[in-house]
Each structure stands twice: as structure tokens, then as C-alpha cells.
Amino acid sequence: PEVPDQERACAERIARDLAGRAYRRPITKQDIDGLMAFYDAGHEGSGGFNAGIEQMVTAVLVSPDFLYRGIAVPQKQAKFYELNDLELASRLSFFLWRRAPDDELLKLANKGELRRPGVLDAQVRRMLAAPQAETLVTDFAFRWLDLLEVDKFEWDKQLFPEFNAELRQDVSTEIDLFLRSILLEDKNVEQLLTADYTFLNERLAKHYGITTVHGAQFRRVHLEDENRYGLLGKGAVLLHTSYGNRTSIVVRGAWVLDKLRGTPPAPPPPNVVTDLSTPPGQAPKTMRAMLELHRQNPTCNMCHGVIEPHGIPLEHFTVTGQWRDADWQANAPIDSKVTMPDGKEIESPTDLRRVLLSRPGQFVQAVTTRLMMYALGREIEPQDMPQVRAIVRDAAKNDYRISSLVLGIVSSDAFRMQALEE
User: Fold this and answer.
1) 111, 113, 86: which is closest to 101 by C-alpha?
2) What count of other Cβ atoms lies within 10 Å of the Cβ of residue 129?
3) pLDDT at 179 over 80
4) What is the pLDDT of residue 47?
5) Is 308 buried (19+), middle (13-18) or exposed (0-12) by CB count in 10 A?
6) Separation between Cα atoms, residue 295 and residue 305, nearest integer Å
7) Could you point out which of 25, 43, 83, 224 has its C-alpha 20 to 30 Å from the C-alpha of 345?
8) Dihedral of the CA atoms 222, 226, 231, 236 (nearest 10)?
């Protein structure tokens, strides 16, 4: 008779420990009673103890307390209220690791020590240094830059016979290693635009016209050509912002405005013709020549006049990221000279990069806005922007390092507090 009692006591300890980790909050007698009912139901059959535990674990894994990150509404109906330590630990862990808090973070939260001066900052630094922080690349950066599915890009095999599935995988590896070298090594986030290096193997280097790299292994390579610096020269970006059979000034310009400037253009009005394919029987024109027709319409020009100057300087890059001086389909030289909306004349990806960095902190603000959206799991509203700007100003003192942006977000009211829904 003692064995069932010992087994049930053991099952109860398992339930308490598992639920504590899974629910990320203090466990009540009601929680344990509910889980033990599943244990008892499973235990009654021929499977005994193991079947009971299996039923109980299943109940934990389908519980809304595990599947959703709940925040307790306080008794007094204040419009804003602080998260408790366990809720703060959960928000922090899902921000930096995309998983539930580990033992150290839970221990501090259960003791009510997470808000002590310096404790939260120390935890942020510990978590940023851990391998789990790679989700800032694999989840945040790839979603922010919309590069999650580059390895599924389909290109016209007749127009680009030099490209293949192996090279497509190479450009994915390059962007992954590049983002890690900045975001996981706590560099200045502006280096996402200015870095004079990339990661190449011999196959991808040859594709880019670089002849000094030998062997199949990826390694860090210094770039001689300034047009290849940073995100604007990366094959993954150029591939993603093209169609399978041609480049797209509009898609590239809109990507630069949205991701790098933080000022996404308005979507096109309904019933606008967006297909710029060459009609049968007509001689191919350059993308720029085709878009001149849009610019003649004042309604179209309102948006195209802003979008296209951000895409035309990238026309020297083909769909697959190779450099070109002529559009061989149209049999015409690439004309990438363009006047920006502020009147500045530019021509190359290097010029475009300088424009993006000409207003101090603008690119960092675009990154911070997306990072804060990722941390909070909601859209950033106009009332959040004073906090975003303050985070950027403070981060300037620390060379715009990713850790200074994360620490700024974690210490903000938007991160530490919750508002009652209207």
C-alpha cells in the first residue's frame, strides 16, 4: 500500500516542478489538484505510474498557462501597472532567448530581487553572452529584414545560368554569419551598413568577382569594393528584393525605406498596373526607363519620387547579386545617377549608404523601433516614440552597441509596465 502513496507523492513533486517552469508563475493548490486528476486518470489503466505522468505532462503542455504568456491584472483599476518579477523575467527571457526563463532568472524573480539596482542589467548581459541569444539573429534580424525565406527564392535558370541552389545556400550562410558578427559580438549596429568585411567561400567569392578566396570553408574576408559594404552589398538582400527574372527598383527602394530608414512607403492604390514585363514584340527596356512612365503621373510620382531614388543606386547589382555596368537584356548601360528627395545627387550603393547615415541616429532608431516591437510583441505606437528616441540618445554614449539598445528597451516603461486595454 505504501508504493502507490510514494508514487503519488513523487508525481506531485514532478507536477509542481514542471508546472512552475511551464506556467512561469507561483503554483497554487488548485493547479496541482487539476494536474493530479490527470495523473490519477492515467494511473488507473495498465500503464500505471508512467501512464499517469504522461497524462499529467500532456495536460501541462496543452494548458493556456503554458501556451500563452499571461499578465495578471491588478485589483485596483489603474490605467498602467508594473509587471511583477515573474512576468518581467518571462518577458525578458522571451525577448532575448525566445524561451521560458532559466533557473537563475526564475530564482531571482521568485525572491523578488530582479528589480534591485543592477540586477536586471546583469541578467541582460549574462543572457546576451549565452548561446541562446542567437535568436536575435535567427528570429529577430531575419524577420526584421524579411530574409527568412531567401533559401526558397526561385530564379529564371535561362537568364541566370551561373546561379544554382548551392550559391543560393551560400548567400544565406553569408548573411547569417555577417549578422552574427555584429549582433552577437556587441558591435555598433551602424556596422550593419558600414562593415568593410563579409564571410565567403571560394564559390560565392567568385560569384562576386573576388579571386583571393580558396576552398569550400567560409571565412571572414576584407572587402576592397566599398559598394559591397554592409547589408546593401549582400547577395541575400539583393536576391530577396528582386523578381526571378529581373531586378526591381521599386521593391529594393521600398525595402531600404522600410527596413533601413524606418519610413515604409504607402501601398500602391488599387488597380495600378505593377507588371513591368516587356510586352511581346517590343524591345526590352531598362527598369529605369520603364518606371519613367510611372513618374509622369503626378499621383504615382508622390510615392515613386521617394521610393525610386532609394532603389536606382542598387541597379548595378543583378538579381543574383553580381556587379554589372550594363543591362544586357536591354543592351543599355546602367544609369544609376539620381536626385534624392532632399536634392542631393547620388549614384552608387556607397552614396546611398552615406545618405542613410547622414542623419545621426536615424538608422539606429529604425533598428531600435523594430527591436522594441519584437520585445513587446506589439506594434509601436506614436506615444512610444519618445521612449525609442531616448533609448537611441542614451545608446550613442555607448557607441550604439546592441547591448545598449537592449538595456535601454528593458529599462523602459513600455517593457516594465503594462497598460489596460481600452
Assistant:
1) 86
2) 11
3) yes
4) 84
5) buried
6) 7
7) 224
8) -80
